[in-house]
Amino acid sequence: MATLYSVIVPVYNRPTEVYDLCESLLAQSYKNFELVIVEDGSTVRCDDVVESARQRGLNVSYYYKENEGRSIARNYGMERASGDYFIFFDSDCVIPPEYFATLDRELGELPIDCFGGPDAAHESFSDTQKAINYSMTSFLTTGGIRGGRVQLEKFVPRTFNMGFSRRVYERVGGFREMFSEDIDMSTRIRQAGFSIGLIRNAFVWHKRRVDFKRFFRQVYVFGMSRITLKLLYPDSLKLVHLLPALFVIGLLAFIIAGVFVSPLWLLPPLIYFVAVFIGALLSTKSLKIALLAVPAALIQLCGYGVGFIKAFVVKILLRKGRNINEEILIRKGK
Predict the structure, then answer these.
(1) CA–CA separation, 119 vs 127, rounded Å?
(2) How far is CA 42 from the centre of its chain?
(3) Is the pLDDT of residue 271 over 80?
(4) Band of the pLDDT at 137, cuts 50, 70, 90?
(5) How far apart are CA 255 and CA 250, in angstroms?
(6) How far is 91 from 111, CA to CA, in rounded Å?
(7) Could you give the 3-state DSSP secondary structure of residue 17?
(8) Strand ranges (DSSP E) for 67-215?
(9) Is the pLDDT of residue 254 over 50?
(10) Which residue(s) pair with 158 in the sheet?
(11) Which of helix, strand or coil describes residue 196?
(12) Strands 85-89 and 60-65
């Protein structure tokens, strides 16, 4: 019998994104999957969009619940899903037509308990979205930790494109309501002894943030959450996670030295951003996207670095905020 996949998507005020997601799922060549939409207290609901997709043949279930957060919404969906595997996408993802055919073939050849796939920019995305996508996936900015061919840490699936077996769920449980909940979940899965792998050909088109302001806020939160993960898992903090903070400190030092000592001190950061520009130009074949990739990289590194430094000072040096054991209990709903 063919494997049944349950696609679980938490949604909050995103009917347009849900429409694009449903359209892409209707076009899948492999049909043995169900879509579980969990509307997490939205004021702008997507039930009409879901019903339209159902009438055109999509196997989809729709649930509306009070707003409690995306992790609780995912857990709510898993409790009601029927699949052998649970697949997680963000609502702003568009799924290539061969995604499930590729996934089923890869899992048939090399079964793994938990997997993740890369993300890419669709040709219809805006130039800003494409620049942000390049920045989020380039080795020059992330060290390849988001599914690149060269990586500085073990691969960690992210919930924009992640899946695991029902057996994993029954043993490990659901997501915690916290930032970087997918990293936390992947860590718990690995600690439980399950296999985790990257399925490189099972990629999604990920729209990401549509402007730099929201992008900064996103990566700022990523930086702060890395300290929470360090408190949860003391051995989880690697050199690659420190690089954005070191970048912020180094950039400030080079700027100060360039202003007060010699302009030559501005050369190292200039060389770096030229490398980002050239890398983006070679990758995207677009001068405009390459130009936008430079501020995208600056925002990504500085946003993450500032969030990391702030959380390090507040939570580790000053020991302020909730005790980590209290945080765990709160996120488990206790």
Answers:
(1) 16
(2) 21
(3) yes
(4) confident
(5) 9
(6) 27
(7) helix
(8) 85-89, 93-94, 114-116, 119-120, 161-165, 196-198, 204-206
(9) yes
(10) 161
(11) strand
(12) unpaired
